[in-house]
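Take one record.
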Amino acid sequence: GGIYFTWPIGPDWAVSAGAAVDRNVPGVGALERSVRQRYRLGVERTGGLSVFRLHVEGAHKRNHLVAGGSTGEGQFLARAEAAGPVPIGWGRLLHLRVLGEGVFASGLIEPAERYPLGGATTLRGYRENQFRGERIALFSAEYRLTGDGRVFLFDDAGAFFVEGEGWTAKNGAGFGLRSDSPLGVIELSFGVGERLSLDDTRIHISLRQSF
Protein backbone atom coordinates (compact mmCIF):
# COMPACT_ATOMS: atom_id res chain seq x y z
CA GLY A 1 0.00 0.00 0.00
CA GLY A 2 1.06 3.54 -0.59
CA ILE A 3 0.03 7.15 -1.12
CA TYR A 4 1.34 9.57 -3.75
CA PHE A 5 0.70 13.26 -4.43
CA THR A 6 1.05 15.18 -7.70
CA TRP A 7 1.50 18.95 -8.04
CA PRO A 8 1.18 20.76 -11.40
CA ILE A 9 4.14 23.06 -12.18
CA GLY A 10 3.01 24.19 -15.64
CA PRO A 11 0.48 23.54 -18.40
CA ASP A 12 1.77 20.00 -19.01
CA TRP A 13 4.35 19.28 -16.29
CA ALA A 14 3.91 18.00 -12.75
CA VAL A 15 6.03 16.70 -9.88
CA SER A 16 5.07 13.85 -7.59
CA ALA A 17 6.12 12.47 -4.23
CA GLY A 18 4.92 9.74 -1.93
CA ALA A 19 5.67 6.65 0.10
CA ALA A 20 4.68 2.99 0.12
CA VAL A 21 5.20 -0.18 2.15
CA ASP A 22 5.22 -3.73 0.82
CA ARG A 23 5.52 -7.04 2.65
CA ASN A 24 6.88 -10.24 1.13
CA VAL A 25 6.25 -13.71 2.65
CA PRO A 26 7.95 -16.21 0.29
CA GLY A 27 7.05 -19.41 2.20
CA VAL A 28 10.29 -21.23 1.27
CA GLY A 29 13.96 -20.60 1.88
CA ALA A 30 15.81 -18.83 4.67
CA LEU A 31 13.66 -15.69 4.51
CA GLU A 32 10.55 -15.77 6.70
CA ARG A 33 9.32 -12.36 5.58
CA SER A 34 10.57 -8.93 4.58
CA VAL A 35 9.14 -5.44 4.89
CA ARG A 36 10.22 -2.70 2.52
CA GLN A 37 9.60 1.05 2.94
CA ARG A 38 9.85 3.05 -0.29
CA TYR A 39 10.03 6.84 -0.78
CA ARG A 40 9.46 8.31 -4.26
CA LEU A 41 10.18 11.54 -6.09
CA GLY A 42 9.22 12.05 -9.71
CA VAL A 43 8.44 14.35 -12.61
CA GLU A 44 6.07 13.81 -15.53
CA ARG A 45 4.72 15.46 -18.64
CA THR A 46 1.42 14.48 -20.20
CA GLY A 47 0.24 16.59 -23.11
CA GLY A 48 -1.77 15.24 -26.02
CA LEU A 49 -0.33 11.98 -27.28
CA SER A 50 3.14 12.59 -25.78
CA VAL A 51 4.10 11.25 -22.35
CA PHE A 52 7.28 11.48 -20.29
CA ARG A 53 7.65 10.08 -16.77
CA LEU A 54 10.66 9.67 -14.52
CA HIS A 55 10.66 8.67 -10.89
CA VAL A 56 13.21 7.34 -8.44
CA GLU A 57 12.73 5.62 -5.10
CA GLY A 58 14.91 5.03 -2.12
CA ALA A 59 13.95 1.99 -0.06
CA HIS A 60 14.88 0.43 3.26
CA LYS A 61 14.24 -3.30 3.58
CA ARG A 62 14.16 -5.35 6.77
CA ASN A 63 14.62 -9.12 6.37
CA HIS A 64 13.32 -11.45 9.10
CA LEU A 65 15.01 -14.86 8.91
CA VAL A 66 13.54 -18.28 9.65
CA ALA A 67 16.48 -19.07 11.93
CA GLY A 68 15.84 -15.91 13.93
CA GLY A 69 17.21 -12.40 13.83
CA SER A 70 16.93 -9.82 11.09
CA THR A 71 19.08 -7.88 8.66
CA GLY A 72 18.64 -4.53 6.96
CA GLU A 73 19.60 -3.31 3.51
CA GLY A 74 19.05 -0.43 1.12
CA GLN A 75 17.61 -0.38 -2.37
CA PHE A 76 17.37 2.13 -5.20
CA LEU A 77 14.54 1.88 -7.74
CA ALA A 78 14.06 3.87 -10.95
CA ARG A 79 11.54 4.04 -13.78
CA ALA A 80 11.68 6.07 -16.99
CA GLU A 81 9.07 6.13 -19.73
CA ALA A 82 8.62 8.20 -22.89
CA ALA A 83 5.99 7.86 -25.60
CA GLY A 84 4.79 9.93 -28.51
CA PRO A 85 3.69 10.00 -32.14
CA VAL A 86 5.92 10.31 -35.20
CA PRO A 87 4.08 11.47 -38.36
CA ILE A 88 4.99 9.37 -41.40
CA GLY A 89 2.78 11.00 -44.03
CA TRP A 90 -0.65 10.40 -45.52
CA GLY A 91 -2.24 11.25 -42.19
CA ARG A 92 -0.68 8.22 -40.49
CA LEU A 93 1.21 7.98 -37.21
CA LEU A 94 3.89 5.70 -35.85
CA HIS A 95 3.47 5.74 -32.07
CA LEU A 96 6.68 4.91 -30.20
CA ARG A 97 7.14 4.00 -26.55
CA VAL A 98 10.32 3.38 -24.53
CA LEU A 99 10.24 2.05 -20.97
CA GLY A 100 12.96 1.11 -18.51
CA GLU A 101 12.73 -0.05 -14.88
CA GLY A 102 15.31 -1.32 -12.46
CA VAL A 103 15.99 -2.15 -8.83
CA PHE A 104 19.51 -2.03 -7.41
CA ALA A 105 20.21 -3.47 -3.95
CA SER A 106 23.01 -4.13 -1.54
CA GLY A 107 21.54 -7.60 -0.87
CA LEU A 108 19.49 -10.29 -2.58
CA ILE A 109 16.57 -9.16 -4.73
CA GLU A 110 13.65 -11.50 -4.11
CA PRO A 111 11.49 -12.69 -7.06
CA ALA A 112 8.52 -10.68 -5.73
CA GLU A 113 10.62 -7.49 -5.97
CA ARG A 114 11.43 -7.97 -9.66
CA TYR A 115 9.57 -6.16 -12.41
CA PRO A 116 7.03 -8.03 -14.56
CA LEU A 117 7.22 -8.14 -18.33
CA GLY A 118 4.60 -9.56 -20.68
CA GLY A 119 0.95 -8.88 -21.38
CA ALA A 120 -1.37 -6.15 -22.61
CA THR A 121 0.54 -3.13 -21.28
CA THR A 122 4.13 -4.26 -21.92
CA LEU A 123 5.12 -7.20 -24.14
CA ARG A 124 2.13 -8.34 -26.18
CA GLY A 125 2.25 -11.85 -27.57
CA TYR A 126 3.12 -13.31 -24.15
CA ARG A 127 1.13 -14.09 -21.00
CA GLU A 128 0.56 -11.43 -18.38
CA ASN A 129 3.70 -11.06 -16.24
CA GLN A 130 5.24 -14.12 -17.93
CA PHE A 131 8.78 -12.84 -17.22
CA ARG A 132 10.29 -11.04 -14.24
CA GLY A 133 13.59 -9.23 -14.02
CA GLU A 134 15.61 -7.03 -11.71
CA ARG A 135 15.85 -4.69 -14.68
CA ILE A 136 13.59 -4.56 -17.72
CA ALA A 137 13.61 -2.59 -20.98
CA LEU A 138 10.85 -2.24 -23.56
CA PHE A 139 10.60 -0.63 -26.99
CA SER A 140 7.19 -0.59 -28.68
CA ALA A 141 6.24 0.64 -32.14
CA GLU A 142 2.60 0.94 -33.16
CA TYR A 143 1.57 1.79 -36.72
CA ARG A 144 -1.91 3.27 -36.63
CA LEU A 145 -3.80 2.45 -39.79
CA THR A 146 -6.59 4.96 -39.08
CA GLY A 147 -6.33 8.60 -38.08
CA ASP A 148 -8.05 7.96 -34.75
CA GLY A 149 -5.78 5.01 -33.97
CA ARG A 150 -8.63 2.52 -33.69
CA VAL A 151 -6.89 -0.07 -35.92
CA PHE A 152 -3.15 -0.68 -35.49
CA LEU A 153 -0.21 -2.98 -36.08
CA PHE A 154 2.41 -3.35 -33.36
CA ASP A 155 5.84 -4.73 -32.59
CA ASP A 156 7.07 -4.97 -28.98
CA ALA A 157 10.71 -5.69 -28.20
CA GLY A 158 11.52 -6.36 -24.55
CA ALA A 159 14.40 -7.62 -22.42
CA PHE A 160 14.82 -8.55 -18.76
CA PHE A 161 17.87 -9.04 -16.56
CA VAL A 162 18.29 -11.59 -13.76
CA GLU A 163 21.48 -11.75 -11.69
CA GLY A 164 23.51 -14.81 -12.70
CA GLU A 165 21.54 -15.27 -15.94
CA GLY A 166 22.15 -11.96 -17.72
CA TRP A 167 19.81 -10.33 -20.22
CA THR A 168 17.12 -12.23 -22.13
CA ALA A 169 15.39 -10.62 -25.14
CA LYS A 170 11.87 -11.31 -26.38
CA ASN A 171 9.76 -9.93 -29.23
CA GLY A 172 6.01 -9.88 -29.84
CA ALA A 173 4.05 -8.61 -32.87
CA GLY A 174 0.47 -8.48 -34.07
CA PHE A 175 -2.52 -6.23 -34.62
CA GLY A 176 -5.27 -4.71 -32.54
CA LEU A 177 -8.43 -2.64 -32.22
CA ARG A 178 -9.42 0.03 -29.70
CA SER A 179 -12.67 1.79 -28.99
CA ASP A 180 -14.11 4.37 -26.63
CA SER A 181 -16.73 3.23 -24.11
CA PRO A 182 -18.52 4.76 -21.10
CA LEU A 183 -15.95 2.99 -18.89
CA GLY A 184 -12.88 4.21 -20.80
CA VAL A 185 -10.77 3.11 -23.74
CA ILE A 186 -11.08 -0.62 -24.48
CA GLU A 187 -8.23 -2.24 -26.39
CA LEU A 188 -8.23 -5.70 -27.98
CA SER A 189 -4.99 -7.00 -29.45
CA PHE A 190 -3.78 -10.27 -30.96
CA GLY A 191 -0.06 -11.00 -30.65
CA VAL A 192 2.42 -13.79 -31.29
CA GLY A 193 5.75 -14.28 -29.56
CA GLU A 194 8.01 -17.30 -30.01
CA ARG A 195 6.23 -18.86 -32.99
CA LEU A 196 3.74 -17.74 -35.62
CA SER A 197 0.90 -20.17 -34.95
CA LEU A 198 -2.71 -20.14 -33.79
CA ASP A 199 -1.83 -22.02 -30.58
CA ASP A 200 0.78 -19.42 -29.63
CA THR A 201 -1.42 -16.40 -30.36
CA ARG A 202 -2.25 -14.39 -27.24
CA ILE A 203 -5.42 -12.28 -26.99
CA HIS A 204 -5.08 -9.22 -24.75
CA ILE A 205 -7.95 -7.10 -23.47
CA SER A 206 -7.29 -3.91 -21.53
CA LEU A 207 -9.32 -0.98 -20.19
CA ARG A 208 -7.73 2.45 -19.63
CA GLN A 209 -9.41 5.12 -17.56
CA SER A 210 -8.26 8.22 -15.68
CA PHE A 211 -9.98 9.55 -12.56
Summary: The two ends are 19 Å apart (CA to CA). The first strand starts at residue 2 and ends at 8.
